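Phosphotriesterase
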Amino acid sequence: MTAARTVRTVLGDIDPAGLGVCDAHDHLFLRSPALPGPPLDDVAAAHATLTAYRDLGGGAMAHWTPFGMGRRAEQLVAASRATGVRVIAATGLHQQVHYDPELLRRLRRGDALAELFVAELTHGTAAGDDPDGPRTAVRAGMIKVAGMFHGLDDHTRWVMTAAADAHHATGAPIGIHHEMGTAAADVLALLHGELGVPASSLLLGHLNRFPDPGMHRELAAAGAFLAFDGPSRAHHATDAWTVGSLVALASHGHTGQLLLGADTTAPGAGPGAPYLLRVMGPRLVRELGEAAVDALLRTNPARAFAVAWAS
């Protein structure tokens, strides 16, 4: 018998149909000395964001903050319970610049990184930045990794190999940060072509930051999900192309592979999750129609994050 597909949230596994309208790429908590500006670390602000998003019809949020970057899993639980918004937590690892070198040396021993990812997906996330320290009861529902600007370095290949191993052990989807929207073809070639992760388990992020219609069509033709997340102050130059990129992909038959997210990375860095429903949603309805927008916000995320969990 085939296992039922579920979405793993911080409050437990749910039927994908119960996910509702989903911000498919965002952050409530995020911390790194390599990121500009103050960290996202305000509990009251996180609750206020989810409340405003919920009041506009939002039902779920995928929280792409990976291990070691201040994801605050227990606060995700509290915020989800208080607001009723489903939250999907992430395991994974970002670019090398965000981590202490000694921590990375520890994780490079044997299969430690893949084992960390699997443990966080199946048993519970690390309570802090120590992979061998105490664990919460919160299980991650996805893996977050990151490419580099127009290429992949050794760190990226190591992390993506571990992510592929964890995917094969659990079935978890993999969300990818593409630096300035670049190197998506390289990521697809590595994760899908070399490491055997099904394209349908890959969520290619930040593609609005690199508005290349031909490249977008190639990525969609491979079967991956394409995430358009923003707008943001840091990447506002490409915000104007987001709607056009979505319309172009939909016109080529790829409506079922498109995801929307707000990707707030610092206080004041963008209008946040409520913008998706207050501004972006109605704008897209005028361009694509209600059925297509329902797919982008509801049906597609339910498919993208649904897993027949192996463990």
